[in-house]
């Protein structure tokens, strides 16, 4: 499934909220290892979802977005692209990076501090999620359905 999928190249500069055929969306280039992008991505998703869903759904979307963005920036040494699309079916957030190595879902270890919980949160809170390979790199995505909103 490729709803809201991003085919942007790492060099594209796109930081916008736009209205597309499938609905409002955010597309944002994330610079390599630029962790300032995490709160900026949360803010943009919050703005996109200002009038969407039941109380709490936007906060879940923000949390899961920050997990995917953080993973892409911390575990790869390359740029990434965030795409978030609201459609009649719900919200889809996708973070594409340009490194083929797939993320591993791992059980958090109590000795790990705050590391190792990101994909567990995504798996627990998203209605659907997954990893999709590209010619160069991959996309990690999640969806929150409108029917639950």
TrEMBL record:
Keyword list (alphabetical) reads: Kinase, Serine/threonine-protein kinase, Transferase
All residue ranges annotated as the Histidine kinase/HSP90-like ATPase domain in the record: 33-142
Superkingdom classification of source: Bacteria
Record Gene3D superfamilies: Histidine kinase-like ATPase, C-terminal domain
Region of interest (Disordered), ranges: 1-28
Q: Which molecular function term from Gene Ontology is one that the record holds?
A: protein serine/threonine kinase activity
Mind telling me which Pfam families this protein's record contains? HATPase_c_2
Q: Which InterPro entries match?
A: Anti-sigma-factor_SerPK, HATPase_C_sf, HATPase_dom
Query: Is the keyword Lyase assigned to this protein?
Result: no
Sorted alphabetically, which PANTHER family does this protein's record hold? ANTI-SIGMA-F FACTOR RSBW (PTHR35526:SF3), ANTI-SIGMA-F FACTOR RSBW-RELATED (PTHR35526)
Q: What is the protein named?
A: Histidine kinase/HSP90-like ATPase domain-containing protein
Give the originating organism: Streptomyces diastatochromogenes
């Amino acid at each position: 499934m490729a709803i809201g999928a991003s085919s942007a190249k790492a060099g594209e500069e796109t930081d916008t909220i736009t209205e597309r055929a499938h609905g409002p969306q955010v597309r944002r280039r994330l610079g390599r290892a630029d962790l300032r992008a995490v709160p900026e991505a949360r803010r943009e998703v919050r703005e996109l979802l200002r009038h969407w869903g039941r109380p709490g759904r936007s906060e879940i979307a923000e949390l899961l977005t920050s997990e995917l963005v953080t993973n892409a920036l911390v575990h790869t040494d390359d740029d990434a692209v965030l795409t978030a699309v609201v459609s009649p079916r719900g919200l889809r957030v996708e973070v594409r990076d340009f490194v083929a190595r797939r993320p591993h879902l791992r059980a958090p270890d109590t000795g790990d501090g705050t590391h190792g919980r990101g994909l567990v949160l995504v798996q627990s809170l998203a209605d659907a999620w997954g990893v999709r390979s590209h010619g160069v790199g991959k996309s990690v995505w999640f969806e929150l359905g409108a029917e639950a909103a």
